[in-house]
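Hi support team,

I submitted a single chain yesterday and got back a structure, but I'm not sure I'm reading the token output correctly. Could someone confirm the output below corresponds to the sequence I sent? I've pasted both exactly as they appear in my results page.

Thanks,
R.
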Amino acid sequence: FATVAVGSECVAKAIGAKMGVSFRGFDMNIFPLKHPGIYSLVWKHVDKVHSISTYLYNKAKSYGLSAETPYEIITPAVAIDSLPSGGIPNSNTLEIVTIARLNWIKGLHTAIAAVKLLRNSGYEVTYHIIGDGEPKEKERYTFQVHEAGLQDVVFFYGKLTHRETLEKLQHASVYVQPSLNEGFCNAVLEAQAMGKLVLASDVGGLPENIVHNETGWLFPVENEVALATQLEYVLSLSAADKKTVSEAAKQRVKKYFAIEQQQKSFVSFYKTGT
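Hi R., thanks for writing in. Yes, this is the structure output for that exact sequence:
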């Protein structure tokens, strides 16, 4: 990863090897803001870069990566055959799931506020948040839920195993990713692979993950009104229209984000060098 390369920029040259660097969300979205110019030596010595999204690659160029440096975009992928059957449950209650660390950048406050708006409008809705975080972050979201009177509506599960997480996701009506930024987001990819109706904020690499109005929906970041309105729209869709989006999401993941395709791309990345 780019952050790991810092301080080891000359190791590859010293052992007669080439250096490849991989970009994830934290590498480009957060670390350079805390440490301006941190990658100057990395850019000088790197031979080839990998990014999980075009968004992060462009971000790296804005921080000084040369456009002449060889690169490849290899997105996250899903082992589709290992996922449980999903689809859209037939339920009168809207069950929303988010898989995310309890961290400010995941934007959970927006989703909680949107759930409050839906409840005020008379919708039967529950919100299930899977992920752990620092005590101060837990306190923040617990307080927000309490102040909104949503103690019987919003549920925190902490960190679950991957299998337990997929079981929770299996029963969801809708998956929501309200992040302030994402490099790409594996959870959004898995939710689509399971045929869930997915809504995500229109930031970072998420527009590369979801095709708006085709495999899911994007909404303006940190806008609970827009999210609630989008959820109302999704609820208003006919069963046939929901199934069309669900199937389109599954087929796109199968076509572009299968684990076998990713493995071949990485083999090619290392074999071709620069």
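A quick pointer for reading it: The beta strands are 20-23, 48-51, 71-73, 94-99, 125-130, 154-156, 174-177, 197-201, 217-219. Let us know if anything else looks off.

Best,
Support desk
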